[in-house]
Amino acid sequence: MIQRLSHTTIYVLDQDRALAFYTEKLGLEVRSDARMGEFRWLTVGPKGQPDLELVLMPLKPSPMMDEATVASFRGLIEKGSFGAGVFATADCKRTYEELKARGVEFAGPPKEQFYGIEAMFKDDSGNWFSLTQHTR
The domain 7-134 belongs to what CATH superfamily? Predict the structure, then answer.
């Protein structure tokens, strides 16, 4: 029986740049940073959620992804075509101001939605995320 999601992959264009973005701008913490030859297993996660790891996976040819697929993914990510997830916050407007001051690019200011307050931002590669304060 499945009990929980422990890891999810976010494809990034540059792991070092992504690491700086996710830790310095978003305030996430490094969970794993290990090298196996040329492969680097790099994960981060929210400080208050120790059982979730976001795998910052570089877009490179591999046994699972050939050069043509990598090129397709790269083009879509750079274009801003992927929504990668939702980050929950207790105060969307305050978190928006903090992240914006750190240089995070938002599509616009927080807006009231039927499910709460939301602001959309993208990472340094072009992946979009929702920053959401859910209503009770």
Answer: 2,3-Dihydroxybiphenyl 1,2-Dioxygenase, domain 1 (3.10.180.10)
